[in-house]
Amino acid sequence: MRGKISEHAAAARRPEPVPVSLESLDAAHLTRTRMLLTLGILGIGSTMVGVIATAFGSVHINLLRALRDPLSPDHAILIGARLPRVFMGAIVGALLATVGAALQALVRNPLAEGGILGISGGGALGAILAMALLTQAPAADVLVPLCAFVASLLSMLAVYRLARLEGRLEPFTLLLVGVIFNAFWGAAIMLVNSVVNFYFSRSILFWLMGSFEAPTWREVAIVSVAAIGGLVILLGYARDMNLLSLGDDDAAQLGVDIARVRRIIFVATSVMIGAAVSVSGIISFVGLIVPHLLRLALGADHRLLLPASFLAGAGFTVAADLIARTVVAPTELPVGAITALCGGPFFIYVLRREGRKSLLL
Amino acid sequence: MTRRPDNVALALTQVSAAYGQRGVLHDISFTLQRGEMLAIVGPNGAGKSTLLRVAGGSLRPSRGEIELLQRPLAAYNRRELARVLATVAQENPVAFRFTVLEIVLMGRAPHLGAFRLETRHDLAAALSAMELFDLVPLADRPIDELSGGERKRVFLARALAQQPRVMLLDEPTAFLDMRHVVEILRQFRELCARSGIAVVATMHDLNAAASYADRLLLLSGGARLALGPPDEVLTVRNLEQLYGVSVQIGRNPVTGAPAIFPGGAMKT
Q1: Which residue of B has its CA nearest to A243?
Q2: Chain A touched by B102 (CB under 8 Å)
Q3: Nearest to A230 by CA among A95, A80, A40, A41
Q4: Number of structural domains, chain A?
Q5: Which of B2, B59, B89, B139 is least enclosed by beta carbons within 10 angstroms?
Q6: What CATH number does the domain containing A160 carry?
Q7: Chain A residues 216-245 with a CB less than 8 Å from chain B
Q8: B209-228 mean pLDDT
Q9: Do A20 and B127 touch (CB under 8 A)?
Q10: Is residue A35 part of a domain?
Q11: Hey, is the C-beta of B121 within 8 angstroms of any chain A C-beta?
């Protein structure tokens, strides 16, 4: 018996460690080089999608003539319709994918996105009510998006207050309350839909399925401020999002002020979604599929995931919008229908292929 | 390490704690010297984990004083605290697929400013922690592909990468195989001696605790039953009172520490 124990003690003596260089660890964590390279590639890719989307549309335009001759109809279409639309698709897509990534970190669940937390549903209801009630108002084109924005913030406040138990924002409760609100707003929209006249029904569909039809440059600018400002704020908390993945106790003992970080992420994402919904309605799946695929390809570090989602979300949504406006031109499909139709099956495919691991993330 | 007041890493004075109305800790006092390793032992529900939570600042005591490095615990802000005190919980959930190295590097977070990536210095701290726990070959593996024991070592390495002065470990040797129990406890033993880190660890394995801890705190029903070196507190009387089973005490032939052999349940 004695001999056995000493043998174990001897076996446990460690061998001399082989020296390991710091560079050999580069593949296992986020380095500046990998970050810049990844973002560079995604940026170039999304820009290329943007150029293609600018060149093609329901009406053929000559890009060279449009740029050379400011009086040509090509120029008018490019500057007045095509470009704002591509930019709007890009910035809304960027925003939605970034918000998705941040919300998934917030609730520690890869199934979260703005739609699931009920925020965009509230915004859409606000827009629809404003449309139905304020038709005679002089500035309806400004009031409707404004109402959508305010309604999404009110919806956010309601979800936030109701999800708080004893002063703590629990991820699971938040997800549950959000899902319930999403269903509730959906029902309210259907209710409004069934009492307003046929003319409004079509506009209601616009809000429910999302569209980048005829945005103004001013709208593009407003959403850009929300998207870029939001990204910068969220990036400031990207490492805290990493730590939140370890659970509240571990994150707290590593110095994260959990209550504050949760509040900031929640408010920032809500304002971002509010801005997006107010101009383009509900576009689902972008916030789900883009961060998910990026996580599989790039790893979980939110310091890369957030800006990567921003760039890839832009490219993905511009491509979806290109399909939406060209595939059965001159009729337009709602872009939200395209993102869901392409995104859904692809998402399932990836989940199946990755098996159990991917579900766990 | 000599017992001097300025060598005190952690001091609890008459600390009590409760969850709601239910008192869980009663009047616990001890001081931990720099470089000392204290094992907290006791049956399930004795308040071991609660004691760690209170000492780590995540649960406010209902009564009593706690001083960390001669400064009241309540006077630390979160990040200051995270730079001197590291905790490893019993359960270590991870929501997304981080790599082993990424998790260990998270221990550097309290030392980093916002928007910062880890520097070579941070990487070196993570690497030396991983070397200590045999984790270098696993550096790029996703955390969810690891076994329970490997995962535990990752979190111990993360706490070490924090470069704290005091470490609080909840069941650090649970899930570990025999080789790693011995290795890890000895690593902590050496760390204590070399860098003056003070370690408090809850443990179920009395023999491991007796072999590696300087002192043992026996907790029973949230109160202190005994505190002292293994030889003094691991008595038949104490252990039978603590666990309600009859025990025999021999000697570990390698370390010379007391070795506990549980017998049957005692008649009450």
Answers
A1: B106
A2: yes
A3: A95
A4: 1
A5: B2
A6: 1.10.3470.10
A7: 235-237, 239, 242-245
A8: 93
A9: yes
A10: no
A11: no
**Domain limits at A320?**
62-352
pLDDT tens for each residue of A332-361: 888 888 888 887 787 777 767 665 554 444
* Predicted ipTM > 0.85: yes
> Cβ separation of A301 and B102 shorter than 8 Å?
yes
pLDDT band at B2 (very low <50, low <70, confident <90, very high): low
- Is residue A159 situated within a structural domain? yes
Interface of A with B in 329-348 (CB under 8 A): none
The verdict on residue A22 lying in a domain is no
Query: Does the residue A66 lie in any domain?
Result: yes
Q: In the structure, what pLDDT confidence band is assigned to residue A140 with cuts at 50, 70 and 90?
A: low
Interface of B with A in 157-176 (CB under 8 A): 162
Q: Locate the chain A residue with the closest alpha carbon to B106.
A: A243
